Amino acid sequence: MERYRSDLEGSLRRVYGDQVDAIWPRLEALLKRSFGERPTELRRLDEARLLRPDWLQAPEMIGYVAYTDRFAGTLKGVSEHLSYLEELGIKYLHLMPLLKPRAGENDGGYAVQDYKAVREDLGSMADLRSLAGELRARGISLELDLVINHVAEEHDWAVKAKAGYGNYRDYFLMFPNREQPDLYERTLPEVFPDFAPGNFTWNAAARSWVWTTFNSYQWDLNWANPNIFLEFVDIILHLANQGVEIFRLDAIAFIWKRMWTDSQNQPEVHDLTRALRAAARIVAPAVAFKAEAIVAPGDLIAYLGQRDHHGKVSDMAYHNSLMVQLWSSLASRSTRLFEQALLAFPPKPTNTTWGMYVRCHDDIGWAISDHDAGMAGTVGWGHRAFLSDFYSGAAPGSFARGQVFQANPRTGDRRISGSAASLAGLEAAETGAEVESALRRLRLLHAVTIGYGGVPLLYMGDELALTNDYSYASAPEHALDNRWMHRPQMDWDKAEERRDPQTSAGKMYAALRSLIQARQHLPHLHASIESRVMRSPNEHTLLLRRTHPQGNMLAVYNFTNEFQALPAWVLREVVGAYPRDAISGHEWNLTNEEVALEPYGAYWLIEQAH
Fold first, then answer.
1. Which pLDDT does position 298 carry in this prediction?
2. How far apart, in whole angstroms, are the C-alpha atoms of residue 39 and residue 15?
3. PANTHER family under this entry (predicted)?
């Protein structure tokens, strides 16, 4: 408390002012109670994390992301497959939403009815606690989603609000008529224009218009009410005491509303995150936060901390721009926009890390700014349209097999669904050469994320190159949401092929294992160090430099299916004349005039002492 009181109280006073005096005794009692309930083995983990505060930044941190039911049926089923994760080199397991959701349609589990209960078909809170212990014994950290912007309409708070019970109406943003909602709507975007247009829903039982950013059954919380802060401190510490080590703060950008803005990325968001982090540090310093903020690069860095928040908010944030640029460069065969996008990022706090990924459970939105596109010599809206055409398979020469998600005729925005393997051409491949090209594309994309510095997050099945699952259309609860095509059931029969080098699964698995093993022995990939883009003389190649006390590292990537040449001096100036490629183990000779990069080649060149 002595260490973090200023972070906690100061941040709360910036948001709530003098209301803090009224809630402080309740907050302090909640922290003391949660600390008293913390199990001995988790206190030991707290001590270990205090001694090694950079645990989340270490090169051995490799993440795996899966839906519990689709990976192994139940939480107990996950326990039966921990050896599979260990073999792959996983140190961080993110299980997608598993807290009790509303029955029926629930936005993939993001409409939570009870934060202190597990979805019945997956198991119980006791099962979750047991799994967390098994993971911890194997050195694997457990991450869960914490939906903090909204709750299900069936959540106890919403039920009481509809009934007019106590002060629960103040837990939400409710309006008796359309006057204020219409004013807000003038500047609010639509998240799901196809099946959930607008941001407000009339609820007859509550006799009010309710703010519902995502779906009509997901009620946005009123974080201007300090009781909401207290509720979530209680939820976080309860789950932390079950063994959850990392919380993915879902839809965090949306939690503070302000008239005449898009009600995203408001300053209060970061004050509240800092206060939540301080509360967690007081009771459970082993816990880390990951911001699910899919926002513009200029807004994103604030989720890791700027100015007085520097390094004091979330410990990790998704590098969504990196993912978008991977697919953009693969389609365009040019890295000019990639370079420009990375140059636009200010340095992050050295005690934070990025979460990088080739694919995730969600659609791909083409978050490419008109400014970056212009600086790279293209037109923003035109390039975004090209990418949507390419990855939906509509563009001539496209190798991709994806589908358009949430087309917005008003803005022209078209997002894309599809698995990494299908988007990279494996599903469409008809010849052995086409299969090899698709697998080389996937290896390239994973090499960039694994070699960037941060926590690479492998989406379930990508290690086996699983393609689109079209059976989603026959499930009524999923039929209208084509994102389920890239949320397949884990194919354990195909997993048995992972040691067969003649299969696509075996080739993909071997490539990923090679990249992971190379990373785990590279101190250069500690996340406290930034990857810095170097302007490449060849527009088809990407050069990322990392400056480390043990020597420089230069990652070199070819985004085409042809050999590409680079002047040797460009590489030699960074890593010397005889660097070692950490992926292949080969020593390079850069005393020649130029070097040739293989089609979709990926290299991590390490400076050596000679």
1. 79
2. 32
3. ALPHA AMYLASE CATALYTIC REGION, ALPHA-AMYLASE FAMILY MEMBER
> How does DSSP classify residue 233?
H
Nearest to 53 by CA among 354, 279, 353: 353
Please say if 587 is a catalytic residue: no
Angstrom distance (rounded) from CA 457 to CA 446:
10
> Is the pLDDT confidence value at 209 over 90?
yes
Of 245, 251, 321, 319, the C-alpha closest to 289 is 245
Q: Is residue 480 part of a domain?
A: no
- Mean pLDDT of all residues in 73-84: 98
Q: State residue 195's pLDDT score.
A: 67
For 318-358, what is each residue's pLDDT tens digit? 999 999 999 999 999 999 999 999 998 889 999 999 999 99
Token pair listed for 41: 């083995």
What CA–CA distance (Å, rounded) separates 519 from 315? 21
Domain-terminating residue out of 220, 255, 276: 220
Set 234, 292, 462, 530: catalytic member:
292
- For range 73-96, the mean pLDDT: 98
Distances (CA, A) of 31 to 34, 65, 237: 5, 31, 8
Q: 24-31 — which CB contacts under 8 Å span 24+ positions?
A: 26/230, 27/230, 27/233, 27/279, 28/1, 30/230, 30/233, 30/234, 30/237, 31/1, 31/233, 31/237, 31/279, 31/282, 31/283
Q: Are 14 and 7 in contact (CB under 8 A)?
A: no
SS3 string, 474-513, reads HCCCCCCCHHHHHCCCCCHHHHHHHHCCCCHHHHHHHHHH
Identify whether residues 575 and 602 lie together within a single domain. yes
Domain identity same for 140 and 286: yes
What is the distance between the alpha carbons of residues 83 and 555, in angstroms, rounded to a whole number? 31
Same domain, 36 and 141: yes
Boundaries of domain holding 586: 527-606
Same domain, residue pair 27 and 114: yes
The closest alpha carbon to 196, from 105, 104, 327, belongs to: 105
Q: Mean pLDDT in the chain?
A: 96
The length of the chain, given as a count of residues: 610
The C-alpha atoms of residue 537 and residue 567 are separated, in whole angstroms, by: 8
What's the CA gap between 266 and 35, in Å, rounded? 31
Q: Which of 352, 328, 316, 550 is nearest to 448 (CA)?
A: 328
Boundary-marking domain end, from 500, 524, 548: 524
CA Rg, the chain, in Å?
Answer: 24
265-283: per-residue pLDDT in tens? 999 999 999 999 999 999 9
pLDDT score, position 117: 98
Options 127, 145, 154, 250, the catalytic residue: 250
d(CA 19, CA 182): 30
CA–CA separation, 16 and 23 (whole Å): 10
Q: Does 8 map to a domain? A: yes
250 given a catalytic annotation: yes
Closest CA to 316 of 447, 456, 448, 221: 456
Kindly state whether residues 515 and 540 are assigned to the same domain. no
